[in-house]
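User: Hi! I'm a student and our assignment asks us to look at how structure tokens line up with a sequence. Could you show me two examples?

Assistant: Happy to help. In each example below, the sequence comes first and the structure tokens follow. Example one:
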Amino acid sequence: MRRATAFFRFVLIAATIAAAACEIVDPDVPPGLDDRLILVAALNPDSTRHPVMVWPAQLSDTVRGALARIYRAKDGSSGSEWTLVDETNDIEHFDICRWWYGYKRGPEGQCLVPVAKLEDGVTYRVEVLAEEKHTAWGDTKAVGDFAIDAAELSGGEVDSLSAEWTRSAAAHRYMVSLRLLQSGNVVASYAEGWYIAVDEMSVTTPVPEEAIEDAITPITLDVAAMAVHLYSFITSGNAGSAFSVPPLQNVSGGFGVVGSVRFRSLGVKRK
């Protein structure tokens, strides 16, 4: 059990479960790499629109002629051959990516939104091309549908949370929290409050008193199923000024992460 690192802002939207937000801290980029891109893509199979955020590794630079593509592995898993699913060079208003990722970068960032209906457990590649830049790409498996079966808080000297859910295909970890906000960005629950990450489909754990005091009422349980690369990216790295450590990344030809996430929620019963 731990608090999330400062750059993690994945959040659930109270009404829909189809949206997430995350404040991304730039990966540490060696100087002089003005031909590289930073790419962040968190694919949510509950949506057909997939915001892709891209910006230049050299912060004084600009991105021109950006093109985002999504490919599907032909055999569904290994990615030895790929089928193009969608591509777009339409630059969307950056608020779309800011809403999805909670990112507050300046005008050099660009937001592209390819459209694709993702299949559970299938491998996808997100690729971004731009003028005079290396092509940046990364692969991820689309995490599968799942449902929370039960969520209960029992009293005592320390409150205990018990919850169960079904398996999500390709999920590496399940991040469990009590919702902090009534609407808008809610896995600020992860960023600013208590959460626990598990690799099983259930959890029984003590919950700090302040986590319950800070939760909205009626108390809501949020569970995020995450693919391995996204989980690794948001739970690694250190942006400290003295000994900065970059997060774990899976983008080739550039920097950043391509991953997958899916969210579910359920009201918590009091025992």
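Example two works the same way, sequence first and then tokens:
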Amino acid sequence: MRKSLFFAMKKIEGLSHTCDQLTSEMRQVKSHLKSVGYIMTGKKINYSHEKQKLNLMQKGVKSIHSSLQKMVIKTTSMLHKIENFEKPSVKGEIKLLTHSSKNSIQKQNSYRKDAR
């Protein structure tokens, strides 16, 4: 699932880049068409640059990318919790070691008694 989210994020980043380029080109076309209109009407060309505003598609793509990032973070966190959950507890291992060492000591003592 995490791998799929990373793949989707990569595709969304590509789409975002394409939208940025498309918007930039469309704004340049709009500016050039205005200039043509000014020239045809005999007015002075206005070279003021518009501020870079995000269009609806860019906002949507950036929102999806942000959502995917949050999902990746939560998925990664969940995977770490699952990995930690599967690890055996140290207390259980210590009990097992002490129990087995007690059994081996008792066996050694019984061998010594038999040998006497």
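Here is something you could point out in your write-up. Residues 70 and 76 are 10 Å apart (CA to CA).
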